[in-house]
Design goal:
With 295 residues, the chain is α/β, with parallel strands linked by helices. The chain is built from ten helices and 14 strands. The N and C termini lie far apart (40 Å).
Length: 295
């Protein structure tokens, strides 16, 4: 595969997207941000995923597209209307981008997905070849990935991302204030497996994949998943605070509704494709990762 020089990114204002854009530019790539609002300069491209519209002329010189856009699964309670919004934001956006990638004949298409694909795995380890689950997010991920396949013969990667750790956002950003005041603790019984990755390694892995010959689903998780109890204990140690205030499962269900199943559920996901391709994590262990992130 010839070198990737110009990359277009959807979801560029999000936690992962903004970090990816910054690192790509630091590495010498030319980056165009695909945005829903009117463009403000020549490094932006406008689109309307709801209507299936995108400026193909502005995309003509792009070598690769990284598609990260979609409403947050944990941003609101899962009402029937919000569940529809979660699904439709992924299907409409991915269909629009995949069709654009096919039309333009780009070199690489990378589309977001999530480890929600696997559903509840309990204590069983799963990798990319394992079948998906049957719960709401499993169905969303399966249809999301099917939409990415509309890119047809374009080399396509589907990123099954785990819990992304960064102090500025996501789950860790929400947990830090409580833990800093010594009010944190395990969630539910704490025995559920959390498959995590630092934002730092997430971005490194995405750029690694951008320049690889890998196609298909790829798990973006550390090779060392931990239980929630191990995670919260490691976070407390990193902050030199106790972790003695567990959040009961019933309270989480009352506060979060359907999304509580993602907090209380167990997903033990292994990054088999990445590790077999020789990718090395800078932060493979949660203790060192959390110390670096909260220092």
């Amino acid at each position: 595969m010839s070198r990737i020089n110009q990359v277009a990114v959807t979801g560029s204002s999000g936690l992962i997207g903004s970090a990816l854009v910054g690192q790509l530019r630091a590495d010498g790539y030319e980056v165009k941000k695909i945005v829903r609002r009117p463009t403000r300069n020549n490094d932006e491209i406008t689109w309307n995923p709801t209507l299936g519209q995108i400026d193909l002329t502005a995309l003509a010189d792009v070598d690769a597209i990284v598609h990260l856009a979609g409403v947050g699964v944990g941003d609101k309670r899962w009402s029937a209307s919000y569940k529809s919004e979660i699904l439709n934001s992924r299907l409409l956006g991915t269909t629009t981008i995949a069709n654009a990638a096919k039309t333009l004949g780009i070199k690489k298409f990378i589309s977001a997905s999530a480890i929600g694909y696997y559903g509840e795995t309990g204590d069983r380890s799963v990798s990319e070849s394992d079948r998906g689950g049957e719960d709401f997010l499993s169905v969303v991920c399966r249809e999301w990935e099917a939409a990415a396949d509309l890119a047809a013969d374009i080399p396509t990667i589907k990123l099954r991302t785990g819990l992304v750790l960064d102090p500025t956002g996501g789950a860790l950003g929400r947990m830090l204030p409580l833990f800093k005041f010594g009010l944190g603790g395990k969630l539910g019984n704490g025995k559920q497996w959390w498959s995590w990755i630092t934002l730092h390694d997430q971005i490194r892995a995405m750029i690694f994949l951008l320049n690889s010959k890998i196609i298909g689903p790829v798990n973006l998780t550390s090779p060392n998943p931990v239980t929630n109890q191990e995670f919260t204990a490691a976070l407390a140690r990193a902050l030199h605070r106790p972790a003695i205030f567990p959040a009961p499962a019933f309270a989480l269900r009352a506060a979060l509704g359907g999304f509580s199943s993602e907090i209380l559920g167990s997903k033990k996901v292994m990054p088999k494709v990445l590790t077999e391709a020789g990718f090395e994590f800078d932060y493979p262990h949660v203790s060192n990762a959390l110390i670096a992130l909260v220092d």
